[in-house]
Every structure is written in C-alpha cells, then in structure tokens.
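Standup notes, protein team

Yesterday: finished cleaning the Natronobacterium gregoryi set.
Today: DUF460 domain-containing protein structure.
Blockers: none.

Input for DUF460 domain-containing protein:
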Amino acid sequence: MSTRTSALDAVVYGVDIQSGDVRGDAPSYALVRYDGDDVARDVVSHRKLRRLIDDEGPAIVATDNMYELAADKDELIHFLGTLPAGTKLVQVTGDQQPEPLSRVAKRHGIPYGKEPMEEAEAAARLAAHNVGYEVSAFTDTTTVKVSRGRSTGSGGWSEDRFTRRIHGSVKKRAREVESELEDATLEYEKDVREAYGGFANAIFTVEARPQDIPVSRNRSGDIRVEIERERRDGIEFRPLAKRRDHVLVGIDPGTTTAVAIVDLEGEVLDVWSSRTSDTAEVIEWIVERGRPIVVAADVTPMPETVEKFRRSFDAAGWTPETDLPVDEKQHRTRNHQYENDHQRDAMAAALYAVDAHEDQFDRIAKKLPPGIDRGEVTARVVAGEESVEAVLAELEDEGDGDEETTTHEPRELTAEEQRIKELEKQVERLQSHVTTLEDRLAEKDDRIDELEVELDETRRKERREVRRNREVTRYRRKAERLEYERDEAREKVDELEQKVDRMKALWKLDHSNFSDVSAEKEGLVPVKVVEKFTKGAIREADDQYGLAPGDVIYLRDASGAGRSTAELLAGFEPRVILKEGGLSDVADEILFEAEIPIGPAGDVAMQEVDELAVAREDDVEAVIDDWHDRAEERRRDRKAAMVDQLISEHRAGDDEV
C-alpha cells in the first residue's frame, strides 16, 4: 500500500549544510533531488542552489532548519520573495519550536543518518510525505501597479503632447488590466492617480497570489507593470496540506463507504465516499491524511467493518450510547460541507468522538512541556492506554537514545517516599473531582459556543453582503452608462424623425398632383425659409431640407450680406427670393447679374408650417413678373447712362482738340 501523497507528483529538494556557514563567505550544501522514485545527490554552492531552484522550480525545498539558507530574518524574507511562484520552503522539523530531525524521521519511518547528505535525503522524503510546515512571509494579497515607463521630461515644444501620450498609455493599460481581473472573477480594489491626458499610475490590490493573476510583470516603452505580494508582519508557519500526524476518523460502512477525517481540535480536514473502493483503498486514503487515534461510528454497537478498520490502525474505538438520530447529526454537521448522507453520518461520528474526548485532550495538553509533540502523546494515551507521565519518560529516553543507558535495581521505598506516593494518589482523586467540576462548567460553555457559531455565521453573511453590494454597484454603474448611451441614441432618432417629417411635408408640396395630397394644397408653392442672409443660415437650411434649383426662398432678414454670401445663394439657382428688410448694394448687384428675381415678402400671402412655408402660386408669379419689369427698366436706365457717358467722353475729346 502506498502512503505517498500529491507532493510526489513533482520534484522535492532536500537541503542541508555540507560545510561552512551561511553567515560566512562560501557555504556548500548537500542537495538531494527526490521525485518519489529516483534520488539524485550533489554538493553545490549557495549560488548554484539558487540557480537550480530558479531553473527547475521544485514543488518543495525542504530543510531541517530554515536559517541554514539565510543568515537572518531579513535575508530569509528576501529568499522567500525570490522563490518561483510554485515553490514552497518547508521546515520538516516543526514550526517555531522544531524537534530533532532524528525524532521526526523515526516517528514517520524515514531512514536517517547523521551525515549532511543523509539528513538532506531524510528532509526530502519527509516533505514528500507532507510532513513539516511551509514557511511563509507573504499573504495571498498581491499589488499590481501600472505606471509610467519613462520620465515625461521638462521643456521642449512637444512636451505636452509627449506627456499626454504617456499618461494616455498608462490609462489604456490600466483598463486592460482591470478587464483581465474582471474576466478572472478576482476581487480587487483600484486606486488611480489621474494626470494630464490620462493616469500617472493605477494600483490594483488583488485578493490572489501572483500565479493566479492573469497579468505578468513587464516594462515596454511608455508603461511598466509591477507585481508584488503583500508581506506579513512576521514569519508564518502553515502545516502542509492534507497530511496530519494524528486524527480522528468517522466511518459509515455499507454499499457506499464514507470516511471523514477530523483533527484533535475538531476541524474537519477531509471527507470522502465511494461505492467501488475496497478495504485496502479506504485504508490507503486514510493513511495519506493522517494517523488515526480514534475510529468512530454513528451507531452502537460498532459495525464489524468499522471494527476491522479500527484494528488495522490499532486505534481506540468510539460509539454513542445509542444510535445518533438524524436531526442531531444534521445539527452537528451544519457548519460543514458534504455531498451525501453517508458523508454526513461519517462526519457526525468523528465530530461526536472529538466532543467525547475533548476534556481528555485538554488535560493531556496541559501536562506537556514545550517541544513535545502533542499528537504523539495523545495517541499513546488514548489508543495505547498509557499514562502521560510514562509516555513523556519514554520519549525522553528516545531523545537520549544515543547516550549510554544504565539500569536501576528496584528498591524498597522509604517512609517519606511512601508518604509522597500516598499524596500523589490523593492528588489524583482531587484532580478527578476537578474534572467533574470542569464537565459541569463545559455544559455552561456550550451556550457560549453556540453563540460564537451564530456570530461567525452572521459575520460570513455580512461579508457576502459586502461582496454582493460591490457587484450591485458595478452593475449599476454599467446600467447608468448604457442608459446614457440609450438616451443619446433616442435624441438622435428624434432629430432624424423630425427631419424626415419635414422632408415628407416638402415632398407632398412638390407633388401636389398625387392622390395623397389634399385638394386644399392645389395652387400653392413651397417656400424654404432662411433666417438670415448669412453663409451659416444658408448652409443650415440646406442641411435641414435641402436647397435646389427652382426653389422659392424666403429671407427673414436680408440685410448685411456681402459678395461671397450673395454668390453662395446664387449658386443654388432659386426661382425667386422673397425678402424682409433692405438688401445691400453688393448683394443686389450679384443677384441681378445672376438674373435671380427678388421681391418683397409682403407682396406674397404665405403660411408657415414649422421651418417651411407655403405661398400662392399667383402671388409668386406676380412678384416674378414685377421683377422682370423692373429689371428691364433697370437695363434701359443702365444703357442710357452708358450712352450719356460715351457722349460726354466724346465731347470732352473734341474740346481738347
């Protein structure tokens, strides 16, 4: 049966000082590369070790003392910060109070020797079996900063344009980063410092590790992207996943076998069920996750299948006084996730077993001196039915195993020693009474525990509400933006519909012989209104309803026009121009030369419809005829003047002769 875990799916480095000191100039290391099958050994310098870690990116770098890789805390934090994204530093001997490597190796059945290469191999094998603590100096929060990749400079005629381009590039890249974080459904907060033409920088605080963020560190041209994990206040030790030294196991046998793993603190570590796994596979699954000290069932007496599992682990058994009711199992597992009733029953059995042994676990913990493995002592007291004192004495003997031991012959106790023994028995009786009182106190503490559970649930709900409100705010902003775009589109549509209506009205007037035009409009002519005799007013009228040759144009204010304005209007070749107010001499001359009739608007009866107007055809013809009469007279006057001028010039020439 294999006890290997997922750590062996990748490479593990075991490291130990071979010679020198990390505080010195040139330490060398015994390096063992272990992949679960093959072991490769080498002696390398500190620089080569770092290069190998960077090149291969092992899953774990294991050591018995993390300060063999760094001289002090600051160097250790720097070392952790330079590890590849998927590489962990693991101290296999424990956390703040490590044990001797020999003791840990012996407890887990790993070969051990005192040579540096043998210690490095032991560290690699222990880490591969998920023994030890990950050393971490960083949280799971990462800062992504988008900023300028170059200085904006000072002076120069193109400085403003250059600065605007850089800040615009930063803004564009920041929006791309935000979009990538949104697509990855990562929680983040954004802090932007705006500047001329865009952003000076944008900082995203993301709740994820760098390897989980779809943005990479780079610098190109105008921008640069920096990624940095948030540091902890100190060094944190986290036990490796899944593997726990000593656990309680709940088993629900049957067609579907379910198993739940719970640690000594009552935390559910894992739960699993299967319809096809045999006994060996179930045992292997349990072994990969810990060493059972109690195997529990939710019914009494213990089923034979569960009893076989208990005997295979040489663990203590636990069953309730009566079969656990479904409602009690549901209540006890309400704060944990499970996939089916079988997993729920196994989990309930394990949790009730923890409740039953809680006081015993606490008493054992209080008697342990610093540096002693609580799980090992608890296992031997609970499963092996040994006293705490006997286990501690044996562990001390194991720690001094390398020293020469001596035997002592039993002797007869003195009166004083006998008295001490009697007092010790009395102390035990008093401790038993204290235990009873503590049990009563525990009953009163149950209510406090329930309230704490309710408080935790309330806090979780509040956190979910905060996340939901954040999502609502984001979607509300998006909705407001879409509503604004919709309103703009509607205004544009309204404007175009009005223009279409004006064009339809004009078309109807120009096609009065069609059946959909009423008889009342017969004998009328459309008039296109120009508010002022300016280029802008003429072009605006042309944009709204079009000016074409043969149109009747009405100038509300004909004053002030110059040569170019008159030439612009003459270029449309109108049939006649009806005007209000006086016309400049220049404009009058240009229009006369273009033979465009002009007449007073007061001589024509007009009726205005929005920006358009209609007039009687007879009135328009009368104005045109009147202009032709005046134009003919104007031409005659002009010819007479020319003749008079020629005669005057001729006479002046004769007088000079």
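Follow-up from PR in the comments: Residues 97 and 285 are 30 Å apart (CA to CA).
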